[in-house]
Amino acid sequence: MGAAATASPLTAVFGEALVDDFSTEQVVGGAPFNVARHLAAFMAPQLMITRIGNDRLGQLVRAEFERFAMSEAGLQVDAMEETGRVLVERGARGGHRFTILPNQAYDFIEREQAVAAVEQAQPGMIYFGTLAQRNEHSRATLAAVLDASRALRFLDLNLRDGQVEERCVTRSLQAAHIAKVNEEELQSLFQWYFQIRPEDPPLSAEEVHASCQALLQMFSLDALIVTLGHRGSVYFGSDGQVINHRDNPAPPFVIDTVGAGDAFSAIFLLGRIRGWEIGQTLSRANEFAGAICAIPGAVPRDLGFYDKWMTRWR
Question: Which sign, positive or negative, has the C-alpha torsion 205, 207, 212, 216?
Answer without folding.
Answer: positive
